[in-house]
Amino acid sequence: MSKIKVAVAGLGRIGKIHLKNLCRNFPEIEVVAVMDVLDESKKIADEFNVPVFVKSFDELLAIEGVDAVVICSPTDTHADYVVKAANAGKQIFCEKPLDLSLDRVKEVLEIVEKSAVKLMLGFNRRFDPEFKKIKQLVEDDAIGDVQIVKITSRDPGPPPVSYIKVSGGLFLDMTIHDFDMARYISGKSVKEVFAKGAVMVDPGIGEAGDIDTAIITLTFEDDSMAVIDNSRKAVYGYDQRLEVFGSKGMAQAENNFPNHHKLYTETGISGDLPLHFFLERYDASYNREMSEFIEALVSGSEMPVGGNDGLLSIAIGLAAKKSVAEGRPVKLTEILN
Amino acid sequence: MSKIKVAVAGLGRIGKIHLKNLCRNFPEIEVVAVMDVLDESKKIADEFNVPVFVKSFDELLAIEGVDAVVICSPTDTHADYVVKAANAGKQIFCEKPLDLSLDRVKEVLEIVEKSAVKLMLGFNRRFDPEFKKIKQLVEDDAIGDVQIVKITSRDPGPPPVSYIKVSGGLFLDMTIHDFDMARYISGKSVKEVFAKGAVMVDPGIGEAGDIDTAIITLTFEDDSMAVIDNSRKAVYGYDQRLEVFGSKGMAQAENNFPNHHKLYTETGISGDLPLHFFLERYDASYNREMSEFIEALVSGSEMPVGGNDGLLSIAIGLAAKKSVAEGRPVKLTEILN
Amino acid sequence: MSKIKVAVAGLGRIGKIHLKNLCRNFPEIEVVAVMDVLDESKKIADEFNVPVFVKSFDELLAIEGVDAVVICSPTDTHADYVVKAANAGKQIFCEKPLDLSLDRVKEVLEIVEKSAVKLMLGFNRRFDPEFKKIKQLVEDDAIGDVQIVKITSRDPGPPPVSYIKVSGGLFLDMTIHDFDMARYISGKSVKEVFAKGAVMVDPGIGEAGDIDTAIITLTFEDDSMAVIDNSRKAVYGYDQRLEVFGSKGMAQAENNFPNHHKLYTETGISGDLPLHFFLERYDASYNREMSEFIEALVSGSEMPVGGNDGLLSIAIGLAAKKSVAEGRPVKLTEILN
Amino acid sequence: MSKIKVAVAGLGRIGKIHLKNLCRNFPEIEVVAVMDVLDESKKIADEFNVPVFVKSFDELLAIEGVDAVVICSPTDTHADYVVKAANAGKQIFCEKPLDLSLDRVKEVLEIVEKSAVKLMLGFNRRFDPEFKKIKQLVEDDAIGDVQIVKITSRDPGPPPVSYIKVSGGLFLDMTIHDFDMARYISGKSVKEVFAKGAVMVDPGIGEAGDIDTAIITLTFEDDSMAVIDNSRKAVYGYDQRLEVFGSKGMAQAENNFPNHHKLYTETGISGDLPLHFFLERYDASYNREMSEFIEALVSGSEMPVGGNDGLLSIAIGLAAKKSVAEGRPVKLTEILN
């Protein structure tokens, strides 16, 4: 059986993770080419023995025999690259978000829909072992009817204000993962969003028109609810927890730690902080995510995260922005229609 | 030194707890009389060797030498009894809430204010060792500026629908404790309330015009926030947790358990459920509460929970009701003015 | 029904605890007299409204109508007082150990045996909620056949060397509780003892002929085992844990804490130390112990801890001493016969 | 810089783990050949693109340019292979134990000593992140002088009796890891061993002359102690814990789990069992172990685990066997001289 030929576009932090996983852990595929706009990224290609390095996405698509592309380039290239890849008949994995404009996302998804290819979006947290376990408990009906979903999602520190200005802001850049998690874990559709935001971490973020602290209440179609709390800066590190409460019980997922030692001294009991940020915390999830992408490629089955998941998370993010701006709950239909 | 003479009004569940603590744990006071409308409550008086048992509050106040009254009778008697006790010059401990009507509460507090007596309200959770520890960490600045307060407050099962009809509903009967906790733990004033509610536990509660599941976002004067989640029915028992997130760190208070054993078997690791309900969970808090009341009596110092704390919690509760009814955030000024 | 009349001998730390529990928590009994050799202990009698205070045990026994005595005086008085009380026909609760001499213990137990009274010994840890839960799991066969019992027992600091000289040393003064726990939790007889000891905490303890650090392996009749580790000084406080491993699983009992908060800061996660010493840690156990003593008095049923339990724990302690002295395992029959 | 050329001998469970790690995670080395006595192991070579597959160790050594060998073949081949590799001038990583005969081990170590090569032994648990953290705390003097080391080491199930017969028994096959851990974590020499053993799991193990349950007390040169408890069968899975108690505090290492979820239901709180056995539990340790071996190869520095570590663990194991057989503590000098 011949190997599936994969090309990777974009060799930033996430691109390098996917490249490493693809090269090391999946004998059923072969990375035949990588693309990055920076010359120095050729070194990365060499390190992983990838035979072809190019600097544009068009060149990448022109390479003979590529079956699938993994798109990890900056957000503003996602939509174009996905359209090009779909037109070229390549299977697609693309990092989230597809685009910050809902209309553009819809347009892209229509093109993909009409094409012969499938698209998977990089909501990696769905593949985290802690959260996957909770999802499984929900599916096994161990929790019963889901009534309340609680997501704690706090970063160890804010990105540069310059990045915040182009990222779409807290809700589209950071909370978007939590919006997807709320939908995924409950298996329910969101109908209304109420968000309160504040600038507590860095006034510069406020001057850039964004917030750095937020509480968001999502109402699902059946009136059950999710609540998310966000901060751009938890001094103790990356805080990623999940709790699902239902008619039969409650399940909690904890942070991940480098070790679980306890030290007892005269002054108290202490232990290590959680894994510091997403590269460490979600290391296993990135690998599983790629594994499920490859499995879907091989088997021809449905992608585990589809384009519509991306669309809805963006819509919820836009509703949250509108809710903060207008000081009122916003129906998702206001955004989607 | 002569002992302080205390009389207890109302010998329901809470009344009996206060009576027991007063009789057993505080040698500096003496319970000289108890009052209850039911004849059979005389047995309780006898059990604790309380010399006088009466059936009306007026009789209780008429007893010679009573210094202070502890009011644990039904909610609809609180306002009247407090007014009578204040007029009679008795120091007052009264269970929450003072009344379901804000105007009546204001009226009563004015009377107390003008009187020579002090009033303490029974927000017992402030005296729980778990929450007191978190409060101390906030005061010690171990958490820094408080940015997010998270309160989980779920009952093991709903009260009878008949009770719900007269109790003022979820927000005034149950969440009122959480509103007080949010104010107490943060030391901040609430300026806005947004609440979403649903009927997930019992349709009868919905038919009675109330909700049984809720998420409430409180905005403090400085834009920091608190979020509360409530359910009338957690099948695993009483769930009372608190988390405070700030600029220097985060502190969590856990549920209380009958023991902390872990059992490892072929099928998993298991442990006991939390203490089932408030009588067990807040056993220590009731004792400490009474202890601080007596200390304030003895020393003449400020009461640790004042009438205004009751007023504000009721106002927040009314704002939450209005928020659910009108589907929008409600400013506290809308309620208070 | 008339109340059982109890007299308490000895008002040191433990005596005061028992007195307080007896006075406050058991309406079915009445403390009619207390005895202590110190004049100033009369204050304690007054504080608890005990009508009679005497300074000798003979006077105590001479008081009309006393049904039971609770003996909390120094160890070297236990044997004499028990014999006198038995001869006077009083039911007896006595703190451990009965005596440091095995022959004297046997003699006393024979006298009690022939008398009309029952004797309960103060192995209070059997009544600790954490350990009781483990015992219940063993009895419910949740752990299966017990194969290994592990006891961690460390004090926050050593007693004065002067006390160590008269206490019988580590094994008879401190480990004796653990020997009883090993027997109680397993429900098995000990046949062999091997102990290693060291002086790690205070050279003065070594000079007094004792050790301050020890590991003891007990072999039960069926070859299953218990292991105990002791230290006179755990800088982090009182460390009292238990683990039982068997054919169906394993159960663990944890230390007790003043609260279970967790504080996350830039430098790590921290929490409070265990309750500092036995008065706090075993507070509940002292009360339950007295409760079961009273229950046995009232119902006339078997005492929950008998004289033989004291005898065997002392014998194991003597075997442990011999094992350290001779550097070899010691059969219990070498001690008992 | 040219890559270090490594050959792997033996492709059983451990061999495959080392091969996978070597091929995937260390770009600085190249696996040039593998050897296994079974024909079908060639498939494994192919899977990892290893160019050369041979069936004898001599052939393996004959391959041009091999710098180092990783020996994972059965225990009874270790000594011969190490001698051959040393004579051939290849750097050596060898799984434990070197041999079951102390004389043979001494002989082999002398040959290695005189050769130009270095030998690292596979005590992988030293590289486990949980235990490494505790070691670091000991080295940082966070625990002070080590007084008691406690090791819990229980397997999920016994190996076949046929294996037990040739493995050297519990102490040389299983506890040997714990003996090494006691030495490693304390940094101290063992002077005396006392072991009690029992057959609690499978009478067949007893019939084969071995035990399946044991408690071992090690005395270090300075009289501080370690205690190890072993069982061949913990129904709840692989139990690998460590506790170090010292003059400044105490540190604990926990088991590893597939996730840390908690599920609260009507019947209790539950969570997942520890990772089932050594392949999962020590996955990270095998990788780090190989990483430190390669680092030592590259830098020419000391091997992190030397031949003497193997010698001493075997000697302690033999002392433990003798202790059980003779029912007395055994000095290590009795074994070593």
Automatic annotation (TrEMBL), chains A, B, C, D:
Residues 4-123 form the Gfo/Idh/MocA-like oxidoreductase N-terminal domain. Coiled coil: none annotated. The keyword Zinc does not apply. SUPFAM superfamilies: Glyceraldehyde-3-phosphate dehydrogenase-like, C-terminal domain, NAD(P)-binding Rossmann-fold domains. One of its GO terms (molecular function) is nucleotide binding. Its EC number is 1.1.1.18. Keywords: Oxidoreductase. It holds the Pfam family GFO_IDH_MocA. Residues 131-251 form the GFO/IDH/MocA-like oxidoreductase domain. It comes from the Bacteria. Belongs to the Gfo/Idh/MocA family. NCBIfam families: myo_inos_iolG (TIGR04380). This is Inositol 2-dehydrogenase. It comes from Maribellus comscasis. The gene is iolG.
